[in-house]
């Protein structure tokens, strides 16, 4: 006789963590939908499992982000330079359909463009994504009609990426599936999702983090390589992984991941590199030659002091600051009393790249959202940061409205935009600060408070330390305690009494 109900979670497995039980902001917010979740839904015995709920919420929020672009879809992209900014609905996608030759059937990297750009200035896998979308776009009708279709096709493909990101985040830290709602409900995520093609790289990186958490270093490396072929920043995660594997003595797994990443990146790039070298190198030369631009600390300095910072000077200072940040993260990894979680250092390295870069486009927040959720799944801190990013999102469009409205000066003057940049910088630094605090004070880490070591750490989860420095070397009991059985919970003076 068939059973009337099935249990999806073994009774021997620990229950998933309820955000509404440990997070007062989540508990208060849950009252809007009927209060904290019950045990039946928590264990997944109903159809509304965490994966399905989070995926549907992510798709719903993405759709709301598309609705927010409606004023531009109806004409602001085409008939008014400043109105697309005053409505905060700008997107690169329709503009580049014609501006990068897709409307004329030009092949990215191989066919030369008219004007100063010459070739498509995006990495190869992103160029493939853009080209596939152009194949699905009708080639008849007015150019406005085609650009609307091109944006809609890209939005549909990017929605799939958004769902992948949400699902991978849920599955990466399996004891904390409901943290995926932070990704799904992130307002900056919805507002910026269709500005550009960044979600492709973010989705590949989210899938890579999932593979690493399942102890599949080769699959992780391949996905990192593909993500780097879509956007440069995912390659940065190999730095934190190197120092963590160094501390844990997991050289074989790191080597496997590195080989997978290099191999996948070459598989995508090498054909274009050999057959269309001038087109392939455009992304890298454009990134190097690009001057000080929106959202960066360099722009504030330029506008406040009237000092003109050249592209070479900005590159030099950005490189120096990034190297210092990398050294600081490496020191953090080796000296922390307990080995940092991979997601914590992954978030810090990408945040450092964003903070030191000579440009910050509003969609770059997408790079950080899933990493921030894995690194610090705390609603209050996450929402503080998101508020700063939404403020920046509005600030940049109002500033562009000011600069494109002529003598009317409708929008936000430079001084106001500088405040928006400062809010973005401070918000990101705040989230970095609480992550660093969690590393040095593991008892404050909400992930480890549940008894886990590094649920997204794959082979690093519960591994022994073989190389430590500073305070970690002077307190071997702390990092050794994670080796046998569940990791202990640490208080300010040592292990909590009664912990295993």
TrEMBL record:
The keyword DNA repair does not apply. Belongs to the glycosyltransferase 87 family. It is found in: Cell membrane. This is DUF2029 domain-containing protein. GO terms for cellular component: plasma membrane. It comes from the Bacteria. Residues 15-24 have a biased composition (Basic and acidic residues). Keywords: Cell membrane, Membrane, Transferase, Transmembrane, Transmembrane helix. InterPro entries: GT87 (IPR018584), UCP010361 (IPR016570). Residues 1-25, 478-500 are annotated as: Disordered. It comes from Streptomyces phyllanthi. It is a multi-pass membrane protein. The chain crosses the membrane at residues 47-67, 149-170, 182-212, 218-245, 257-277, 314-336, 342-361, 382-400. One of its GO terms (molecular function) is hexosyltransferase activity. The keyword Ion transport does not apply.
């Amino acid at each position: 006789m068939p059973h009337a109900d099935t249990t999806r979670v073994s009774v021997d497995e620990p229950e998933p963590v309820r955000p509404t039980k440990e997070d007062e902001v989540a508990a208060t917010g849950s009252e809007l939908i009927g209060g904290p979740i019950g045990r039946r839904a928590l264990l997944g015995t109903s159809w509304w499992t965490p994966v399905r709920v989070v995926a549907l919420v992510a798709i719903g929020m993405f759709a709301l982000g598309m609705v927010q672009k409606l004023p531009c879809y109806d004409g602001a992209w085409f008939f008014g330079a400043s109105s697309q900014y005053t409505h905060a609905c700008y997107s690169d996608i329709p503009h580049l359909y014609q501006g990068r030759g897709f409307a004329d059937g030009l092949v990215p990297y191989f066919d030369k463009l008219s004007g100063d750009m010459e070739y498509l200035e995006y990495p190869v896998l992103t160029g493939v994504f853009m080209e596939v979308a152009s194949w699905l776009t009708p080639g008849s009708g007015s150019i406005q009609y085609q650009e609307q279709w091109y944006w809609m096709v890209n939005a549909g493909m990017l929605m799939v990426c958004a769902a992948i990101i949400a699902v991978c985040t849920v599955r990466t830290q399996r004891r904390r599936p409901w943290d995926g709602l932070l990704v799904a409900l992130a307002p900056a995520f919805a507002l910026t999702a269709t500005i550009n093609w960044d979600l492709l790289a973010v989705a590949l990186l989210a899938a890579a983090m999932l593979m690493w958490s399942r102890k599949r270093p080769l699959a992780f490396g391949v996905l990192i390589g593909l993500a780097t072929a879509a956007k440069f920043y995912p390659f940065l995660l190999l730095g934190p992984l190197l120092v963590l594997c160094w501390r844990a003595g997991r050289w074989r797994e790191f080597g496997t991941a590195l080989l997978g990443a290099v191999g996948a990146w070459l598989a995508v790039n090498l054909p274009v590199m050999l057959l269309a070298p001038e087109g392939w190198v455009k992304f890298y030369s454009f990134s190097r030659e690009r001057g000080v631009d929106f959202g960066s600390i360099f722009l504030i300095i330029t506008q406040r002091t009237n000092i003109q910072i050249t592209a070479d000077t900005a590159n030099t200072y950005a490189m120096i600051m990034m190297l210092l940040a990398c050294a600081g993260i490496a020191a953090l990894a080796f000296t922390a009393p307990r080995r940092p979680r991979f997601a914590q250092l992954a978030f810090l390295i990408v945040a450092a790249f964003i903070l030191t870069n000579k440009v910050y486009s509003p969609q770059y927040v997408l790079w950080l959202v899933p990493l921030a959720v894995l690194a610090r799944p705390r609603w209050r801190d996450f929402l503080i940061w998101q508020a700063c990013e939404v403020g920046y999102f509005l600030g940049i469009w109002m500033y562009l409205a000011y600069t494109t409205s002529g003598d009317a000066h409708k929008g936000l003057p430079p001084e106001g935009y500088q405040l928006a940049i400062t809010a973005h910088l401070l918000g990101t630094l705040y989230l970095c600060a609480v992550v660093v605090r969690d590393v040095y004070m593991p008892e404050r880490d909400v992930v480890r408070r549940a008894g886990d070591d590094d649920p997204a750490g794959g082979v690093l989860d519960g591994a022994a330390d073989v190389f430590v420095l500073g305070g970690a070397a002077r307190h071997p009991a702390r990092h050794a305690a994670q080796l046998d059985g569940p990791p202990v919970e640490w208080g300010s003076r040592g292990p909590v009494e009664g912990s295993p």
